[in-house]
Amino acid sequence: MKQPQRTGVIRDYDMHSASVRVGYAVVILLCILMVILAVFPILWVILAGFKDLKELIASTSIFPQSYDLSRFATTWAQLGIAKNYLNSLISVVGSVICALVFNGLLGYGLGTLKPKGYGIVKRLVMLSLLMPTTISIVPLFMNIQKLGLSNSFVPLWLSYGANAMYVILFVQFFESLPASIIEASRIDGCNPLQIFFHIVLPLSKPICAVVAIFAVNAAWSDFLLPYLVLRGGELQTVMVRLFVFSTDQTVNADAMMRSVVFSMIPPIILFFIFQKQLTENTVSVGIKG
Amino acid sequence: MSGQNARTRSRARLAEDLKSWMIMLPGLILMTFFIWEPLLESVRMSLYKTRNIELVRFIGLDNFISVVGKDDFLQALANTFSYTFWSLIIGFALPVLLALLIGETVRGKSFFRTAAYLPNMLPGLAVIILWSSFFSGEKSGVLNILLGRLGIPQQSYLTRYEWVIPIIIIISTWKGAGATALIYMAGMAGVNPELYEAAAIDGATVWQRVFHILLPSIRKLAGTLLILQIISVFQIMYEPMVLTKGGPDNASLSLMQLMWQYAFGGSMNYGKASAVAVIVTLILLVMTAIYSYFNRKESDWD
């Protein structure tokens, strides 16, 4: 097997020195320790999901006495999680569409079209990046109530159409597209919207994928605004349900652990499908941000 | 003739700009509705007496005076700074170290990167609930099980006044450190490996290369991530809300949590909640200004 190239501080010929070899072994050991620390809590909660209430409270073993999947099935049915999954799915799909369309078009305006005065808007968007939205959650919630949009997915979907980070990701991508392509199609008589849908969008699959993955995960995990908008109603998502469980003590600890597992399954699946894009894209976001 | 041409051209240009603004309009409306207007509205609301979602009357700074005068505000303010302090102690250097370690590995690098990123994908709420059973005071609490094997007696971690904030920071660091490490790795990848070669030929040890080439290369990135970290920790809210409900005895109550309690904790006092939000915003603005002042100074030096 071909040895991959060393790209770090330690160079190949350093490995002749015994002390560097020991140091490298320590590096590997620490990395393995990191993997254990990252994975163990997740494994633990899955194992804990197999325990019944008595075992969960009393047992001092990490491993359950039996691996009975029917316990998961029972909790799933008793708490009616299927409905929450469906709600989460509807919420996520709408959010992703809004995230792509609205932030994409705004990013197209700021990154490619650049009409007179776009600089002010761009600066405002940059500034919003520093002021995350929890601070203004109270007036936002009041606005939603005034418009009579409580107990509806609409405000949640649309809130993903106003994400400063996604806009900036789009802007940076569109700015990197060669201006000559856009200029050429403009001369051919395409209007800006045609250019967007026929030229820009097909070239933008990578950035759309990044924003979509981020938005799926964010929309799935979100619970503060969804809780305020959906509480008490029929449309509660998985995370809203989990938040409600965590505030009132009516749910048993074992059902709670299994609900935590249910809430983690879709993100973990998403992670394993898109791990490459995720670990590499964080990287490009980092350099630019 | 040419003047008329210029006029048609500028009119065409104007029409095009107008079209561009139309394309941006939906996004701008949403930005206004979800971010900009609420931010301004919270300033206005903080100056009014509110009843449910109605603004009853203008009362100047009364909300601020009443909020700041309560003991729980001073406690929450001190706690929030304590969160920030612990987050810098525990959470700032760790991602740099992880990036350094993963960057040195040859085989399995992408595996280590993947594992480091995994906790960041999990829903924050699920992470908090999952860790609450680690720090549980019961004998079935995971830490009690593990440390019990080492002979350390059963403890109740989350009811210890001096431990609760560091524990919450450890949990959020567990979730976020790996993802931040990947950002540092990208910054470190900007260093040309030949630089290390050259330094090595000049007799620089591995440590010298780390301290004189690698770490300086991420200094600016570290500054940016530092301010982002402070801004985000300063708004810590749901972690103590779910894990400890602000306890024991308000020892983990944060400013944003106080805001949430005023608004949604039963009293629906949106005016006072907005006053807290405005105070948090002002503190964040001051911190950002200090940061950009020092940052500018530093670039002058460069």
Describe the structure.
The complex is a heterodimer of chains A (289) and B (302). With 289 residues, chain A is mostly helical. Chain A has two domains: 12-49; 73-288, Orthogonal Bundle (MetI-like fold). Chain A is built from 14 helices and no strands. Chain A has helices at 18-49, 53-58, 70-78, 81-113, 118-130, 137-146, 154-159, 164-176, 179-187, 192-203, 205-221, 224-230, 238-247, 253-288. In chain A, helix 5 (118-130) packs across helix 8 (164-176). The mean pLDDT of chain A is 87. With 302 residues, chain B is mostly helical. Chain B has a domain at 2-38. Chain B has a two-stranded antiparallel ribbon. Chain B is flat and about 70 Å long. The termini of chain B are far apart. At the A-B interface, helix 1, helix 2, helix 4, helix 5 and helix 6 of A face helix 1, helix 4, helix 5, helix 6 and helix 7 of B.
Radius of gyration of chain B: 25 Å
The number of E-state strands of chain B comes to 2
Summed over residues and divided by their number, the pLDDT of chain B gives a mean of 88
Question: How many helices of chain A does DSSP assign?
Answer: 14
> How do the helices and strands follow one another from N- to C-terminus of chain A?
HHHHHHHHHHHHHH
Largest interface: A-B, 110 and 104 residues
Shape of chain B: flat
> What proportion of the residues of chain A is helical, as a percent range?
over 70%
Count all strands of chain A and give the number: 0
Could you tell me the CATH topology label of the largest domain in chain A: MetI-like fold
- Portion in beta strands of chain A: under 5%
The main sheet of chain A comes to: none
How many structural domains can be distinguished in the coordinates of chain A?
Answer: 2
Features:
heterodimer, A: 289 residues, 2 domains, 14 helices, B: 302 residues, mainly alpha
Task: Compile the SSE list and pairings.
The complex is a heterodimer of chains A (289) and B (302).
Chain A: H1 18-49, H2 53-58, H3 70-78, H4 81-113, H5 118-130, H6 137-146, H7 154-159, H8 164-176, H9 179-187, H10 192-203, H11 205-221, H12 224-230, H13 238-247, H14 253-288
Helix pairs in contact in A: 1-14, 4-8, 4-11, 5-8, 9-10, 11-14, 12-13, 13-14
Chain B: H1 2-45, E1 48-51, E2 54-58, H2 62-68, H3 71-91, H4 93-104, H5 109-121, H6 124-132, H7 142-149, H8 164-188, H9 193-201, H10 206-217, H11 219-234, H12 238-243, H13 255-264, H14 270-301
Antiparallel strand pairs in B: 1-2
Helix pairs in contact in B: 2-14, 3-8, 3-11, 4-8, 5-8, 11-14, 13-14
